[in-house]
Amino acid sequence: MNYLKEQTRKQFFGNCGVGLGTLALNQLLGTYSQAKHIPKIDPSNPMSSRKAPLKAKAKNVIYLFMAGAPSQLELFEHKPKLNELNGKAPPPSLLEGRRFAFLKGNEKLLGSTRKFQRHGQCGMTIGETMPHMSKIVDEVTWLRGMTTDVFNHGPAKLFMNTGFQAPGRPSMGSWVTYGLGSESSNLPGFVVLQSGPRGPRAGNSLWASGFLPTSFQGVPFRGKGDPILYLKSPEGMRRNRERKFYDTIRDLNKIRLEDVGDPEILTRINSYEMAYQMQSSAPELMDLSKESEKTMELYGAKKGEASFANNCILARRLIERGTRFVQLYHSNWDSHGGPGETLDKDFEKVCKDVDQASAALIFDLKQRGLLEDTLVVWGGEFGRTPMGESRKTTGRDHHIDAFTMWMAGAGVKKGYIHGKTDELGFGIIDGKVHVHDLHATILHLLGFDHEQLTYRFQGREFRLTDVHGNIVREILT
Amino acid sequence: MNFLRFLLFLLLTEGYLLGSDKILFNRDIRPILSDHCFSCHGPDKRARKADLRLDTYEGAIRDLGGYSAIVPGDPEKSELLLRTIHSDPEELMPPPKSKIPKLDSEKIRLLTQWIKEGAKYQRHWAFTPITDPKRNSKEHLIDHFISKRLKKEGMALSERADPYTLIRRLYLDLTGLLPSPEEVSAFVNDPSEKAYRNLVDDLLKSPHYGERWGRHWLDQARYADSHGYTSDSERQMWPYRDWVIDALNKDMSFDQFTIEQIAGDLLPDATKSQIAATAFHRNTLISQEGGSDPEQFRVEATMDRVNTTGAVWLGLSVGCAQCHDHKFDPISQREYYEMYAFFNSAEDKNNTGPTIPVIEGELINSPEKNEKNKANLMVMRDMKDPRETFLLARGDFTTPDKKTGQLNPSFISAITPDLEQKEGKRSRLDLAKWLVNPKNPLTSRVTVNRTWMRYFGKGIVETEEDFGTRGTLPSHPDLLESMSSYFIDSGWSMKKLHKLIVTSKTYTQSSKVSPQSLKADSGNYLLSRQSRIRLDAEIIRDAALSASGLLSRKIGGPGIRPPQPSGIYAFTQNKKKWNTTTGPDRYRRGMYIVFFRSAPYPLFGTFDVPDFQTTCTRRARSNTPLQALNISNDPAFMEFAQGLALRAIQTIPGEAETTLDERIRLAFKLALSRSPNDREFETLKNYAIEFAKDISAKGDGEDAKSLINEAIVKSAISLDQGAALVAVSRAILNTDNFITRE
């Protein structure tokens, strides 16, 4: 019997117990407000700070994106069984239905040569190449059961950032600033920083605003030269002259506004004033000379260098100055075994690039009281296979079925390990967290129902989690 | 139970008393059903609950076992209404757990009245045949409908814009360039209707018209000079760009324009130009990443061809039917793949083939051919043995639905139910002809609406990309009908359509916003004024080039690479080749700047040019601080400011002090096509004087030297005075007025 029939039958036979008392009259005559978490945006200042519709634990996000996909089997997942079966063919049952980027099907299992140790109260196992990260295990929620849908770098990065594997959707940072605006009036609300030998695959579509207004797109700050393109005035235009220049434009725009009455001119006047402010606030942000020696040491940062460590300090400085969403990309974690991608020297180098600063960021945010409302996310676009891939040396291919990420700070548990994989690291046994679930959880921490933060485009309500996503409640405080 | 009925009765009585206007299904009811009901009781049969569909009359009145969702004429017996007010969450519709908002009392009242009046359904307006509503033929077609509506609201069109504003508006809209001061003067001296019409005719004959409107078309064609995805290496598609410019300049009829781009290769005795036109659908992305399955990307490109065709010609988001039946519009998943079948036999497979060799000038009506610049243009060609097409479950290329069987190319039946499809094998040519069949109700409406949008800032149907049931209704339905008929009757002439629009009083009226009109119609839906529209990125450059006198008017050929700061590719996977263009080519229009999808020329990203991963039918128009920094500090714009200053110096010779006023006025006029008013002039003059004073007081001439160029140095003006004029020119180019079509 179908639903409607059954319900109606219940009603007709008086089973549903409806009476006048339960049917409130105001329900009939009143107006219901729309439940959607669609922000009301002031067109003259789209980035003005907005209050989250639900109770929020986090105010800001720092997302450390490990571009190229770090090997969870060298860093976080100690698998003695895999070491034991090194060189053997994987059980066919484990390969069924899985897809890989490069593997042909005859590859052998590859044990890890890395030494692992348990750390902290939570007893998280960390590989030897991350000595600093082993010190923050009790500050962090470990997600060992991450899974994604896509096994190529570009599409998988897009998927991790936008919830969709093709370009064109808004990135997480765009959704967040669309929802919350920014606390800063003289720096962008969503900033992207980058380090390592090359840019992440899929490029600017990773921080694009898609169909959301472009005010919400990520602004990439450059490590060298002007942090923002065209930030510096032309040579000869000194600061006092620039004040006059911006005043002149403001006066001209005001005269035009009085004449033609278009309120958009008011927005233009505001934009120009913020541009002038940014000319001093952005270099001030980038200038690490006021950071203490101790801080520089903590991060392993060197003044004047474009590095992951410097970017981590900048991320903290951005959050301090009110920026809502900071995303760092560091390349290259790809470890197929070919030149520049080996699991020994190249892998050690990239570990060294990020290990100390990732941990330092957590310590530093904590000691400054910023960790309470800042969420830090660390991870790549997928994981790496338990089988070896033969190139010049033996490396690992892309693995989408099980990998590790971590989160720390506002609203997530400390020293908590969520999820478990099988003894060879092929699949997840418990605590599976899909990319959409991660997104749902991050939005939840920021005070949004991921199903309600929507934007209407081409006849459809779009959201970061598409039509999926469940909040991972186990990891919440 | 009786209480419920009684309450319903109360509500109905109240609602009925409140009701006034007659209910129209398309205007009043469909949006309610679409927002609240169709996701479970709509066209998508797999998502359908309780075997109930409310998008058709038959479905809604169907006997569900002694009762029906809707009983025409009898709201009390209509289960649907009962469910909207039920207090039991298990019974209430939409179910609270669905998170679809509940119906408010006004919506319930409308539904009630509609059922009472017989629950009449209407076909969705956009799918009904185009009509030609009656009108006063002596009046301008557009003004007739716009004025009629304004009158109904007690409003009227604004007065005609002043001739300065009008000529700048017309130049920017039709050519994307600025009028010269002489052209402005001539029109100001004779701003008659006749002179205006002559101006319109001249501009529509200008070869720059094809560039201006070609750029709009290239947005829809998702044209770019690189393959996209992560490698994003360069490709040579510029001959297609030239084809578009040429076709528009020739005023190729829109039906022919369509047929050649969708299926030029399949025309009998196809010419080279017709084959080149099919590059339209070769603007899809190609993945060159190692380890990727070419079939996956071939399927994605094929889907993009379907989706682009749907968006550009039909104004429908057919892509929703990739994975499931469309939730709101009558497009089934099967129909999606039947349309997909038209494109599934294309030869290319995530690679560049097939191509045709083209030399510069060959596709553009140009006497100069340049053998040195050759390109292998990617075009469409069908395989001899076409691939079999299956429905792809969940849109996944690895899961073809063999059970449903092989699908043949076919059109979406709901759009043209009265049109019989040709028997036997249908080709892309049949698809193209179907798109522009006068009986196709969408193509003309969608095209006219989008053209309108470029002139007024938004379409008559505001959701120009969605003419489906979830789109907004036309603000002026009869106007859209009338113009759509006109367009077809004119032989699909795009130039005639432009002329119709720009010769209307609706177009030529002032864009000034009075407090009254802002209050009465803040969004300007009724058009009691023109709209002020921020210029597109390319046109900002073009306008600055025209003002500075640096503009190179060369049309077509390979793209250019003006200077750009280092580090643009810091964030891309591969560094791009960017050998800075020198000589006059450096000052060519923005549309010729080589476009890498992964890292476009900075001005473009800052001023809302999309990355052309997919079709773009409407650009965003943002207003950000980064835009301010771009025009203020980009060396290119400094160069334009220097050009503008130099032009003022050279046109008005003499002593710096005695000519200052005149030079400021001229620079202003060159950029804004009008003279400054007293306050504007005083503001700029004070700025110039103070600037010159400051720079001579503090500097040793070094600052001034870095602000002016060699030509200004040679012009015998003092360094400080020259620098002050550059500063003034820079300020003018940074006004809101300069980057706005008023």
Overview of this protein structure:
The complex is a heterodimer of chains A (477) and B (742). By secondary structure, chain A is α/β, with parallel strands linked by helices. Helix content of chain A is 31%, strand content 17%. The longest helix of chain A is centred in the middle third of the chain and has 23 residues, at 264-286. The model of chain A is unreliable at 1-34 (pLDDT under 50). Helix content of chain B is 45%, strand content 3%. In chain B, strand 3 and strand 4 (400-401) form a beta hairpin.
Overview features:
heterodimer, A: 477 residues, alpha/beta, nine-stranded mixed beta sheet, two-stranded antiparallel ribbon, B: mainly alpha, two-stranded antiparallel sheet, 31 helices, 6 strands
Rg result of chain A: 25 Å
Content-based structural category of chain B: mainly alpha
Mean pLDDT of chain A: 88
Biggest β-sheet of chain B, characterized? 2 strands, antiparallel
Number of helices of chain A: 13
Task: Let me know the largest β-sheet of chain A.
Answer: 9 strands, mixed
Give the end-to-end Cα distance of chain A, rounded to a whole number of Å.
43 Å
Radius of gyration of chain B: 29 Å
Number of domains of chain A: 1
What is the CATH H-level superfamily of chain A? Alkaline Phosphatase, subunit A
Report the order of strands and helices of chain A: HHEHHHEEEHHEEHHHHEHEEEEEEEEHEE
Oligomerization state:
heterodimer
Structural classification of chain A? alpha/beta
Shape of chain B: globular
Helix content of chain A: 25-40%
Distance between the termini of chain B: 63 Å
Uncertain runs of chain B = 12-20
- The CATH architecture classification of chain A is 3-Layer(aba) Sandwich
